[in-house]
Write a structure and sequence with these properties.
The protein is an alpha+beta fold. It has 3 domains: 7-106, Helix Hairpins, CATH 1.10.287.110; 127-260, Heat shock protein DnaJ, cysteine-rich domain (Chaperone, DNAj Protein, Chain A); 267-376, Sandwich (HSP40/DNAj peptide-binding domain), CATH 2.60.260.20. 26% of the residues lie in helices and 25% in strands. The longest helix has 17 residues, at 42-58.
Length: 378
């Protein structure tokens, strides 16, 4: 009877598991126990070897079928494993995992079929800036100019970094491969060449305008479309408006953080607009029709008789557009009954006369309060 462990158990997956799940399980083990991360650790090396052999079989349709039917006997001799220096008999999907894995561990890149490292441009950096807008601009949206400083392609060298059109030369540190290789146990490990930073080329005659970078700093003006309903602290993403890439690399993105100025009258709660409106004693007692300011102009609102201070009244659809495009918030009016601070003699006389006629029907809250106090001390 074979003393080998079950390949599914080694990777911690069930029989019938998809290839993607097997890759995921193997990658997790390999990242944890890779020899380069665990130098001179024989136990981790053994776990890594065992998992690699298991993945080699289970990611190969033919081998996996034989293994499912006959167990280890069906694949013995067909899987090269790590023994005898044979390496894997068929890398297949496992080879792709190795390529990604080595890139994560060492930062190395893959080589092209000709053996030379594929030379890719370096992407530009993402940028971030802040744009101040008014409360009303945030409510209704606006298209606004924004000036930023970013790196753009150098016009003197057309982004090559070389002066007078002279092209780059092959890096003598890696002979143009873009990576340096070293032996680590049974693997040859690769990492980016420190001299050329993985490009395989160096600039011997750098452009004087950009000092060989291929880019220069420049102030540019952009038109930013701010959508209606945006709130303070939210941000917009302008794809491709960050720093230009190096040597044909993709440009970064620009993130614009929105700062909404306070309004002297309105405040925002989600998509509703809040405001406080004062009314007089007589308006509160008798009722009235008053003008209320909104973000889109003045509207008339009816105050019912007997309105108490602190009452909230709502104007439907007078709030802020929802960013989803569906629906508009309301305007919420906080009614505050204003107490006069200075009275002329005639006003004072009338108020004293009015007080004489006050009764339960006129001031239900006051009478109720006095009744509760009276009961409290009985």
């Amino acid at each position: 009877m074979s003393g080998k462990r079950d390949y599914y158990d080694i990777l911690g997956v069930q029989k019938g598991t998809s290839k993607d799940e097997i890759k995921k399980a193997y990658r997790k083990i390999a990242m944890q126990h890779h020899p380069d991360r665990n130098p001179d650790n024989k136990e981790s090396e053994a776990i890594f070897k065992e998992a690699s052999v298991a993945a080699d079989v289970l990611l190969n349709d033919e081998k996996r079928t034989k293994y499912d039917q006959f167990g280890h006997a069906g694949v013995d001799g067909s899987s090269g494993g790590f023994g005898g220096g044979q390496g894997f008999s068929d890398f297949g999907d496992l080879g792709d995992i190795f390529g990604d894995l080595f890139g994560d561990i060492l930062g190395g890149g893959r080589r092209s079929s000709g053996g030379r490292r594929r030379s890719y441009g370096k992407p530009g950096a993402d940028l971030q800036t802040t744009m101040n807008i008014s409360f009303k601009e945030a409510t209704f949206g606006i298209e606004k100019e924004l000036k930023i400083q970013r790196k753009v392609v150098c016009t003197a060298c057309s982004g090559s970094g070389s002066a007078d059109g002279a092209g780059p030369s092959t890096c003598d540190g890696c002979n143009g491969y873009g990576e340096v290789r070293r032996q680590q146990g049974f693997f040859t490990m690769a990492s980016p060449c420190p001299k050329c930073r993985g490009t395989g080329q160096i600039i011997t005659n750098p452009c004087k305008k950009c000092n060989g970078d291929g880019r220069v700093s420049k102030q540019v003006t952009l038109e930013v479309k701010v959508p209606a309903g945006i709130d303070d602290g939210q941000r917009l993403k302008l794809a491709g408006e960050g720093d230009s890439g190096v040597k044909g690399g993709q440009s970064g993105d620009l993130y614009v953080i929105i700062a909404v100025d306070d309004h002297e009258f309105f405040k925002r709660e989600e998509y509703d607009v809040m405001c406080t409106v004062p009314i007089s004693f007589s308006q509160a007692a008798l009722g009235a029709t008053i003008e209320v300011p909104t973000l889109s102009g003045k509207v008339e609102m009816k105050i019912p008789s007997g309105t108490q201070s602190g009452k909230k009244m709502r104007l439907k659809g007078k709030g802020i557009n929802k960013l989803t495009g569906y629906g508009i918030g309301d305007q919420v009016i906080d009614i505050q009954v204003e107490t006069p601070t200075k009275l002329c003699s005639e006003q004072e006389r009338l108020f004293r006369e009015l007080e004489e006629y006050s009764n339960k029907s006129c001031n239900p809250m006051s009478v109720g309060f006095l009744d509760k106090v009276k009961n409290l001390f009985q």
